[in-house]
Specification:
Layout lengths: L1 H34 L3 H21 L5 H11 L1 H27 L4 H32 L3 H13 L2 H20 L3 H5 L2 H24 L1
C-alpha cells in the first residue's frame, strides 16, 4: 500500500513538472517570437521548443531552460527563418485558396472535389511541417533537408500522421473554447504530443535500418 502511494505521488509530481515546464516553455516561445517581430522569431523559437521537449522526453532534463532556450534561439536563427518562410508561405497559399473557393459558386465539383482536395492538402502540410521540425530536432542539418526527409517519414508513418492531425485539432479546439490556454499551451502541448509520437516513428526507422 505504501509503495502504491509512493508511485502515485511520484506520477503526480512528474505530471505537475511537465505541466509547469510546458507552460514556461510556451511563455518563452511567445516572448522570443515577439522579440523577433513574429516573422523572424517564430521559426527559431519553435525549433527551441521542439529541441527542449525532445531533450526532456529523452533525458528528463528541465534545468536552465531559459539559458538553453536562448542559446538554441540564437544558433537556429537562420534555419528558423527558413522554416518560418516556408510555413508562412504554405499557410498563406492555403488561406488564399480557401478564400477563392468560398467566393466561387458552390457547385458539385467544388463541394465534392475541390474542397476535399484542399482539406487533404492542408492535412499534408500540417503533417510534413511537424515532421520537418521533428526530424530537424532529431538529426540537425538544414531545414530544407529536414523537409525532404520529414516528407518521406510522413509517407511511411500513417498512424503517426493520424495522431499528429488529432493533436492539431485538439490544440485548435482547446484554444477556441478555453482562450486562456493560448498563453501557456498554444504550442507546447502540441509539441509534446507530436514529439512523443515522432520519437516512436524515428526509433522504428532506426530499428529497420539496423535489421537490414
Amino acid at each position: 500500500m505504501e509503495y502504491q502511494k509512493y508511485e502515485s505521488g511520484n506520477l503526480f509530481m512528474k505530471i505537475l513538472e511537465w505541466i509547469v515546464t510546458l507552460a514556461y516553455l510556451n511563455i518563452l516561445w511567445l516572448g522570443f517570437t515577439l522579440v523577433g517581430f513574429i516573422f523572424f522569431g517564430f521559426g527559431p523559437a519553435t525549433i527551441a521548443v521542439y529541441r527542449l521537449v525532445r531533450k526532456k522526453l529523452r533525458q528528463g532534463d528541465s534545468a536552465y531552460i531559459f539559458k538553453q532556450f536562448r542559446t538554441i534561439f540564437k544558433e537556429e536563427f537562420k534555419q528558423g527563418g527558413i522554416y518560418t518562410a516556408m510555413a508562412f508561405g504554405a499557410a498563406a497559399f492555403l488561406y488564399v485558396d480557401f478564400r477563392i473557393v468560398q467566393a466561387l459558386p458552390q457547385t458539385n465539383v467544388i463541394q465534392l472535389l475541390v474542397i476535399p482536395a484542399l482539406l487533404i492538402l492542408t492535412a499534408l502540410v500540417i503533417v510534413v511541417a511537424t515532421f520537418t521540425l521533428g526530424y530537424y530536432a532529431e538529426y540537425g542539418g538544414t531545414i530544407l533537408n529536414a523537409l525532404k526527409k520529414g516528407f518521406w517519414v510522413a509517407l511511411i508513418s500513417p498512424i503517426s500522421n493520424i495522431v499528429i492531425l488529432h493533436a492539431f485539432l485538439f490544440q485548435f479546439f482547446m484554444m477556441a473554447y478555453i482562450p486562456a490556454t493560448f498563453l501557456f499551451f498554444s504550442l507546447t502541448s502540441y509539441a509534446f504530443i507530436t514529439e512523443w509520437i515522432m520519437n516512436k516513428a524515428f526509433n522504428r526507422i532506426k530499428v529497420r535500418k539496423k535489421s537490414l
